[in-house]
């Protein structure tokens, strides 16, 4: 698989996914299935939870494949 970087934004938070780092631990899918759903395309839906919940789940990514950027006010 190519090393792809994708950005998913709701205007407040942007979740960044780096496919080449992903270890497919599924922590994200198990922890916040309303946002992370590998059966959907796109598989990240940043409107599926509050920004703070998304931040907390992304911080649990063991591989560092998921990160986030917060829009500056």
Question: What tags apply to this protein structure?
Answer:
Alpha-Beta Plaits; alpha+beta; 3-stranded antiparallel beta sheet; 73 residues
Structural features, described:
This protein is α+β, with helices and mostly antiparallel strands and 73 residues long. The termini are far apart. The radius of gyration is 11 Å and the shape is globular. 18% of the residues lie in helices and 22% in strands. The chain has a single domain, classed as Alpha-Beta Plaits (2-Layer Sandwich). A three-stranded antiparallel β-sheet has the order 1-2-3, covered by helices on one side. It contains two helices and three strands; from the N terminus they run ββααβ.
Indicate the topology.
Elements: E1 5-9, E2 13-18, H1 27-31, H2 51-58, E3 66-70
Antiparallel strand pairs: 1-2, 2-3
Summarize the entry for a quick read.
The protein is an alpha+beta fold and 73 residues long. It contains two helices and three strands. The protein has a three-stranded antiparallel beta sheet with strand order 1-2-3, covered by helices on one side.
């Amino acid at each position: 698989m190519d090393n792809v970087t994708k950005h998913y934004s709701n205007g407040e938070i942007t979740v960044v996914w780096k496919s080449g780092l992903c270890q497919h631990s599924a922590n994200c899918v198990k922890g916040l299935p309303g946002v992370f759903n590998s059966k959907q395309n796109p598989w990240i839906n940043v409107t599926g939870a509050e920004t703070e919940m998304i931040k907390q789940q992304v911080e649990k990514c063991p591989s560092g494949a998921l990160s986030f950027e917060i829009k500056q006010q």
